[in-house]
Design goal:
Layout lengths: L1 H18 L5 H19 L9 E2 L16 H15 L1 H6 L7 E5 L6 H11 L3 E6 L10 H19 L4 E7 L1 H5 L8 H16 L8 E8 L7 H4 L4 E6 L5 H12 L10 H7 L5 H17 L7 H13 L9 H21 L4 E5 L9 E4 L10 H22 L7 H16 L15 H25 L1 H14 L1 E3 H12 L1
Parallel strand pairs: 2-5, 2-6, 3-4, 4-5
Antiparallel strand pairs: 1-3, 7-8, 7-9
The structure holds adenosine-5'-triphosphate.
């Protein structure tokens, strides 16, 4: 405000001098040059660039109860934060204060939420920034920004009469990668050194006790100096949620939404294996948007079903394939679905030929349980399902298409998994020491065995294709239940 008033007064003075006959050209020239220099320096972060978003609220929004499916990570973090809450006890016992907590895990699992909740839990001022904000081409700028970040967190805490501050650095791997590896490594190293210096300087009897929290998806990239005791003392893993965790997160994000009686969040959680908290938030949001578009008062299960498709595969495309292509896609996806039902009855959730993302159609399976380990039989079954699309095209249309290239890529990856886990005829081997022609032969043998099985099964169930294709071409989508009823009719 003061800045704007002074600027206005200065401008008024120049105009006044001009009116009463003074030559104001040199004044205007120097003012313009000074302004340009100031903005240039500011854009390069040399003057007063604000680094770190320090929340002005006394307590940042968000608490541990807003985070779902991360009970063990929350417990670990809370235990660490007790060091800050009961600092008097810690001081008496001469315990070194906790200086840093590193949150590691995949994107969107709630690391930022945890840092905010930690600030709330310790009644601290919260300053957040991303590792990329420190990186500039100009030497010394990053280091200066680190100093500024710590200073502004302390100053804000003092102003708000708080004794704790939490500094949260997201994507710390950008700033804290192993030293000496970056092309402009001198600047990167200086920035990291400054962070180490600031962390070393943190003391229990500081007027403001600062805790540095950082998040990364790649802790293996971090410089070992950051991870040594006395710096990031605690590492908390924030992983993808399991089925119960997913349900908890869905509960949190649907609490403010009107749900229809047919909505089972347990089923949505079951269908969303591998989703992060951010994905689940998006599913809840997209389901509500779909309900609004249809002018429904409540969100139904089908809205959730479509929202999962959207988050998994991407937005529906306007691209309209030709009639021939539509037929081919319907046959391809029905092939996948037939094999999926053969291997695990009840596993098909839906088959659609709506183009989304990169796919012209897809078959969605309901995962049985969250599986983290696979037997050789499981992996071979996955191969069979993946091969079934191309083999169905071959059986019904007489040839294959490029539509199966992604299936084959995945098939080869699964075969590689079988060999690397010592479950192939080669026994336990080091993948790198297997000659390429041996790899080729073993891969070929595994795939051929599944191809034979799939061909035979599809041949026996050939009639299913006509009926399913008719429905898919008409409605673009068939539910798992409907697909199974057609299969039963054909078998009967
Ligand atoms: P990144 O590594 O990409 O920075 P992150 O792990 O920090 O991601 P957040 O920014 O905390 O993820 O989460 C993004 C959004 O996803 C949150 O605002 C929230 O809506 C939702 N979310 C993520 N995880 C959870 C969770 N465990 N419980 C509830 N909501 C969650």
């Amino acid at each position: 405000m003061i800045k704007e008033i002074s600027l206005g007064l200065g401008l008024a003075a120049v105009i006044f001098l001009g009116i009463i006959g003074y030559d104001v050209t040199p004044l205007v020239f120097f003012a313009a040059a000074g302004g340009a220099l100031f903005f240039l320096a500011r854009s390069r972060g040399m003057v007063g660039k604000n680094i770190g978003n320090v929340t002005s609220n006394s307590t940042p929004a968000g608490s541990f109860s807003d985070i779902g499916g991360q009970a063990s990570a929350i417990n670990e973090l809370r235990e660490a934060l007790e060091f800050i809450r009961s600092y008097e006890k810690i001081k008496k016992l001469g315990i070194r204060p906790l200086k840093g907590v590193l949150l590691t895990g995949p994107p969107g699992t709630g690391k930022t939420l945890m840092a905010r909740a930690a600030a709330n839990f310790t009644d601290a001022v919260f300053a957040s920034c991303s590792g990329s904000e420190f990186i500039e081409m100009y030497a010394g700028v990053g280091a200066q920004r680190v100093r500024q970040l710590f200073k502004s967190a302390r100053d804000t805490a003092l102003k708000q009469k708080k004794s704790n501050a939490v500094i949260f650095i997201d994507e710390i791997d950008i700033l804290g990668g192993k030293r000496g590896q970056n092309s402009s490594h001198h600047e990167y190293d200086q920035t990291l050194n400054q962070l180490l210096v600031e962390m070393d300087g943190l003391k229990i009897d500081d007027r403001v006790r600062v805790l540095v929290m950082a998040a990364t998806n790649r802790s293996d990239m971090l410089d070992p100096a950051l991870l040594r005791p006395g710096r990031f003392d605690r590492q908390v893993t924030v992983d993808l949620p399991d089925r119960d965790g997913r349900k908890e997160i869905l509960n949190l994000h649907t609490a403010n939404k009107p749900l229809g009686v047919d909505v089972s969040l347990d089923s949505v959680a079951k269908e969303t294996f591998g989703f992060s908290g951010a994905h689940l938030e998006s599913v809840a949001n997209e389901a509500a948007i779909l309900a609004m578009r249809e002018e429904c008062k409540e969100i139904s299960y089908r809205h959730f079903h479509e929202a999962v498709d959207k988050v998994m595969m991407g937005e529906k495309l306007d691209r309209k394939p030709s009639h021939e292509e539509i037929r081919r896609v319907a046959i391809h996806e029905s092939g996948h679905a037939l094999l999926s039902e053969c291997i695990r009855p009840g596993s098909v959730s839906a088959v659609t030929i709506t183009p989304r993302g990169k796919a012209l159609g897809y078959m969605r399976q309901t995962p049985d349980n969250d599986n983290y380990l696979h037997t050789c039989e499981n992996l071979e079954s996955q191969i069979a399902v993946m091969l079934a699309g191309a083999l169905a095209e071959e059986l019904i249309l007489g040839n294959r298409s490029t539509g199966a290239s992604n299936d084959f890529e995945q098939t080869v990856n699964v075969v590689e998994q079988i060999i690397k886990s010592g479950m192939s005829e080669l026994g336990v081997v080091s993948w790198d020491s297997v000659p390429s022609d041996t790899r080729f032969q073993v891969t070929n043998k595994i795939i051929r065995k599944q191809e034979e099985f799939v061909r035979e099964y599809l041949e026996k169930n050939k009639e299913v294709f006509d009926k399913v294709m008719e429905i898919l071409i008409d409605k673009e989508r068939i539910s798992g239940e409907h697909f199974r009823s057609i299969m039963r009719q054909q078998v009967a």
